[in-house]
Amino acid sequence: QRVAMGRALARNPKLFLFDEPLSNLDAKLRVELRAEIKLLHQRTKTTTVYVTHDQIEAMTLGDRIAVMKDGRVLQLGTPDDIYSRPATRYVAQFIGSPSMNMIPAVRSGTGASANGVELELTSTQREALAASSAGTLTYGLRPEAVRFADDGVPGTLRFTEPTGPETYATVETSVGLLTLRVPGYMAAKIGDAVHVKWTPESVHLFDATTDKRIG
């Protein structure tokens, strides 16, 4: 891969096209070459089109990302746009690891509920929902948006995935399974009763029929 990049540089091109250049490499070499490609782009300032199925590569390398499905561009924007305001449920689940928690919900008056539990929404989301024709909804929460709190929704800790600097915890609640990203090591044990909480500002609301973002 380094030789191929060297040959491309020697031609002094106006455009680089990378088609999944790191797909067959081991994890350590992928990280090293990803950094080299980023440095190459910063040094040459050459327009680069980079095709990848790896959302980490897309987020770390791209100034702008086009998320495609079945030959169609679903969303085009900066990494922050794509991550913070995904246009569809597919984009929301594709970008981010662990992927966004998706809670099946239904319209309930001016709000949303899941399994009889009222789900928090901002006033802006309620207005957008009122203006839409959506009946069935998907209520999305990033793992880092959910936290343990004594006054939250009750649940049971089902399993944990320690990674060193953080732990992924999966909690079974009345609204479904939720994955949390917790800093450091968790003292809680599998089967412990816990409570989880989030703010309405962290919610991503989608029309379950069209997959499109409501708010």
Query: What is the CATH-assigned architecture of one domain?
Result: 3-Layer(aba) Sandwich
State the distance separating the first and last CA atoms: 42 Å
**CATH homologous superfamily placement of one domain:** P-loop containing nucleotide triphosphate hydrolases
The biggest beta sheet is recorded as:
5 strands, antiparallel
Helix content: 25-40%
Bulk shape: flat
Number of helices: 6
State the gist of this model.
The protein is an alpha+beta fold and 215 residues long. It is built from six helices and 13 strands.
Explain what this protein looks like in three dimensions.
With 215 residues, this protein is an alpha+beta fold. Among the domains are: 2-94, Rossmann fold; 147-197, Beta Barrel (OB fold (Dihydrolipoamide Acetyltransferase, E2P)). It is 26% helix and 39% strand. It is built from six helices and 13 strands. The chain has helices at residues 2-10, 27-44, 55-61, 79-84, 89-94, 123-131, and strands at 15-19, 47-51, 65-69, 72-77, 101-108, 111-114, 117-119, 136-141, 147-162, 166-173, 176-183, 193-197, 203-207. The strands form four sheets. A five-stranded antiparallel beta sheet has the order 7-6-5-8-13. Strands 11-10-9-12 form a four-stranded antiparallel beta sheet, with no helix packed on it. Strand 5 (101-108) and strand 6 form a beta hairpin. The chain is flat and about 65 Å long. The N and C termini lie far apart (42 Å). The relative contact order is 0.13. The model has no long low-confidence stretch (mean pLDDT 92).
